[in-house]
Amino acid sequence: MSEAAHGAGPASGPAMRLAEAPAKALSLVACLMLFVMMIITFLDVVGRYFFSSPLPSAYELVSLCMPAIIFCALPLANLREEHVTVDLLDGVTPGLVKRAQGVIVNLVVAGATGFVAWRLWVRSSDQARFSEVTEALFLPLWPFSLAMAALCAVAALASLAAAFAWATGARRRAET
């Protein structure tokens, strides 16, 4: 979705340029994980229907790929503000209010994703302490939740960069 389509105007500035490259790299990892998930599903279906031998632990592997896709794509979505939005009043909202709204919304999103990162970190430490593993492959769960916590923290930083861009005027709402 283009920036003009969802209401955010052009963004520049040091915070946005600094955050854009790692966020794009993580989105490429998300694409790779989606491809891996597709291959796993394909092999499972082919094995199941043509050889009566499904791919062992395919469900578990797909279940591990799904959060990787979500949490790798989240920083770029936060940075570009590509979330679902309702902009019924944007046409009549003054520019200064739009700017304040951009800062406030991004700070709230940063706080929410920061909170989720903290809770995932707590969950990861609990999983490590109790040696929790996956059901079929017996993989330890804590590295996965720790990675999700780290990616959520990166997403929170991306929201802070977007808030900074609004505060400094590097980002504006597109005029409609």
Outline the secondary-structure elements.
Layout: H1 3-6, E1 8-11, H2 14-50, H3 58-80, H4 95-129, H5 142-168, E2 171-173
Antiparallel strand pairs: 1-2
Helix pairs in contact: 2-3, 2-5, 3-5, 4-5
How does this model look, in words?
- The chain is mostly helical.
- It contains five helices and two strands, in the order αβααααβ.
- Strands 1-2 form a two-stranded antiparallel ribbon.
- Helix 3 packs parallel to helix 5 and helix 4 runs antiparallel to helix 5.
- The protein starts with a helix and ends with a strand.
- Mean pLDDT is 87; it is low at 1-7.
Q: Quick one: overall form?
A: elongated
Question: How many strands?
Answer: 2
Oligomer: single chain
Measured by DSSP, the beta-strand proportion falls in under 5%
Question: What Rg is obtained from the alpha carbons, in whole angstroms?
Answer: 20 Å
| Lateral strand order in the biggest sheet | 1-2
Sheet with most strands: 2 strands, antiparallel
Q: Return the string of H and E elements.
A: HEHHHHE
Derived structural class: mainly alpha
Helicity range: over 70%
Q: Counting H and I runs of at least 4 residues, what is the number of helices?
A: 5
